[in-house]
Amino acid sequence: MAESVFRLAVPTEKIQELHQRLKLTRLPDELDDAAWDYGAPLADIRRLVERWQNGNDWREHEAQINDELPQFTRDIAVAGHGVLNIHYVHQQSPVPDAIPLLFVHGWPGNFLEVRKILPLFFSVVALSLPGYGFSEAPRMKGFKLDQYAEVGHRLMLALGYNEYVTQGGDFGFQITRRIARNYGGKAWHTNFPIAQAPSMFSSPLAYLSHLLTPYTPFEKAGLERTRWFESTGRGYYAAHATKPQTLGYALADSPVGLLAWIYEKLVAWTDSYPWDDDEGSYCFSRAGPAASLRIYYEVANGDKRYPPPSEAPTIPLGLSYFPKELIVVPRGSYLNIESPHDHGGHFAAHEEPGLLVDDMRKMFGKQGSAFGVVPGKTGYA
To answer: Range of 113's domain?
Structure first.
């Protein structure tokens, strides 16, 4: 499992092919007063297509990524699934006793989400999940949350981090939860604390507490945000979880289809974050966009989105609550360190890196509940 240095270098013919496909773009019509009600607005997509066809210098962005992020690849063996070549970012802190942190992204994120927090905290490892970015994709069915967790854990062991802490949002929350449960992790932090509503039978005390305790304005707004997402924003989930291969043809063949599918989420899932027209691309991922969708199918078919309380990890957990997250559960759903914020959305590491890092510093600092959980490691950048 030797480590190899990785530098992003998309073949010129792939860039040329993208430009050719963009020239042949055929855009749909749109209702005069549609705005965002029907999905990504035509004016936005037309502007982005023009930018990517005529104004974007991919080589410039490629050079910036290579200069900023120390990237590597390594073969990781996964039980029952053979060996996968995994791409990751690994930055070691100059602080001798820095706490090792595994950062795990979700969809439609990728390893670039770590870009803004990398200079701020810890010795950081941020992997491209199998099928995302420049990691090899699974080749067989049944690659579920446990397998993604195994990849993350085995990668940390291969790097010499026998004990470490984790941070994850979106699917990163569920994957780091499995790492905590399956491998006895030291502590974990998330900005996506989803939870199932308590029932009288599963959690009678929590159920009564939520019945009798008035919700705060923050919690009321969060429940409204959750209702909005559940009623108008989960169509993508149904498609990914049922027929990801069918959708994959459209996303692989049409760069504009891929752009619109992801752009809608980037705007709707953030707290008015001012996206730059050059931010983010799935076009050049190693396995193609279809591979990134299959995790939804695996979770929906035989995995547990909400494991029972008996399977809950007992290690320290830190929570960052952002008001424009997709699902905002009432505080107290977890009996852990909770930090609410008055702005921020789903992509916390990208939108609000300072707030996210401050929350982790509080958790792992001298007054935090997770101080010293990794023996001999109490520092951070």
So the answer is: 1-381
Q: What is the DSSP track for 95-130?
A: STTBPEEEEE--SS--GGGGTTTTTTSSEEEEEPPT
Q: What is the pLDDT of residues 137-149, one digit of tens each?
A: 999 999 999 999 9
CB contact burial 10-24 (16+ within 10 A = b; e otherwise): eeeeebeebeeebee
- In degrees, rounded to 5, the angle at the alpha carbon of residue 114 between the alpha carbons of residues 110 and 118 is 160
Distance, in Å, from the CA atom of 245 to the CA atom of 183, rounded to the nearest integer, reads 32
Evaluate if pTM is beyond 0.85.
Answer: yes
What is the set of active-site residues?
170, 296, 346
| Cα distances (Å, whole numbers) of residue 376 to 164, 186, 291, 357 | 11, 13, 39, 21
The conformational region for residue 12 under phi > 0 = left, psi -120 to 50 = alpha, else beta, is alpha
CATH number of 46's domain: 3.40.50.1820
DSSP string, 57-92: -HHHHHHHHHHH--EEEEEEEETTTEEEEEEEEEE-
Number of domains in the chain: 1
